[in-house]
Amino acid sequence: MKTDIPALMRARRLDAIVVRGNTDTSTDLAYLVGGVKLENALYLQKADSPPLLVASPIERDTAASTGYRMRLWSDYDLIEYTKRHHNDRFRAAVAILSDLLRDEGVSGRVGFYGLADQGYSYIFLQALAAANPHIEVVGEPYPNLFQVARQTKDAQELAVMRRVGERTGRLLDSVFDFLTGQRARNGVLVHADGRPVTVGDVKEHIRLEMARLNLAEAHENIFAPGREGAVPHNTGTHERPLRLGETIVFDVFPYDPATGYFHDVTRTFFLGYAPDPLAERWQQVKTVFDRVLAELRIGERCARYQELVCDAFESLGYPTLRQDPKTQRGYVHSLGHGLGLDIHEPPALNLMPDNDTVFVPGHVFSVEPGLYEPDTPPDGGPGGWAIRLEDTVAFDHDGHLVNLTAYPCPMVIPVRELSG
């Protein structure tokens, strides 16, 4: 949480932190300014003084709404600095930040954060360190200060994420209503004029409904029928018709443009009917999904739940990544991930050797067990299918598990068949 930042600075022996970028590309900066939209802004926090926000003059009113002490980049005229440094824009940029840090009395160990081209950041921070011997430029490996601070959400963040989840539920309602409003002919979903309903038609509906619900899409949603869903991040071929009786993995992860916070939910379903072998596999995933949700507890290791799912699927005869890190069938990914201003944040529900995270109040994360079969399996069962179920859940500040998705898991979406 933001209130943890001073303690995290002390633990890292940081005398100051600098976060620079645009709020639409640096979610650390977006986190600090609380959803205010800024370009080329800089946040400076010294261990012993209130934060400073440096912004463009043309965004001064927006920047002022954060409540932070503010300065403007016009205090450091880029044109004059560039002339002074023989038209070398890079040297001018180093000089501007050097003067800003000097004017603000910054010295000692300074952590730098934000998002920029890695090569430019490397040479820029080298040049900044060379020009300021009184400053030690500090970089951090994973997990850095902000990854630790952001992985626990405060009550306001949890409330925002609950509202995004509620709107995402309305999005799912609309998609399922759209599908049940179509008809089927010869096992294929069709429009009223007889044209096949395609993945692209559904995605168009999803995007229009997102706009109506004031949600946005950072990455293309997944609507992947049959074998396409068996590679977990296949998004679905737009021209592909929708057929009855095949698995459809529907994974949608919108964010709220006003606050930047994400939601993530997956439902796998069948149109019209579920063939018995696949219905059995769907129920196996649902049983594991329900078991995980029932056993989640504060104080437990995140990795324990990945172990639980591997145990369950292996006992049913499916391969897992724990058994074979190269497997492309069975259970082929980790159980879940944190989310917030990024769709993937700590904590992680995986079996990485360094994953010693335990659940604490404020954690928000996905739970998404799945099974995948891109080809006909060795037992001769049905090939070309995928089943994944996912909710976004949180531990509130009383330690209670809260399901931010709270949406039903239908196995079959009814469709009426046209005669003739």
Main features:
four-stranded mixed β-sheet; Creatine Amidinohydrolase; 11 helices; 420 residues; alpha/beta; six-stranded mixed β-sheet
Describe this structure in words.
The chain is an alpha/beta fold and 420 residues long. The chain folds into two domains: 2-149, Creatinase/prolidase N-terminal domain (Creatine Amidinohydrolase, Chain A, domain 1, 3-Layer(aba) Sandwich); 152-417, Alpha-Beta Complex (Creatine Amidinohydrolase), CATH 3.90.230.10. Helices cover 32% and strands 20% of the residues. It has eleven helices and 20 strands. It has helices spanning 5-11, 27-33, 60-64, 78-84, 89-103, 118-131, 145-150, 155-180, 199-212, 276-295, 302-315; strands at residues 16-21, 41-46, 52-55, 69-72, 108-114, 135-138, 183-185, 188-190, 222-225, 247-252, 265-271, 336-338, 345-349, 364-367, 370-373, 385-388, 391-395, 401-403, 412-413, 416-417. The strands form six sheets. The chain has a six-stranded mixed beta sheet. Strands 9-10-11-19 form a four-stranded mixed beta sheet. It has a three-stranded mixed beta sheet with strand order 8-7-20, with no helix packed on it. Strand 3, helix 3 and strand 4 form a beta-alpha-beta unit. It starts with a helix and ends with a strand. The mean pLDDT is 95.
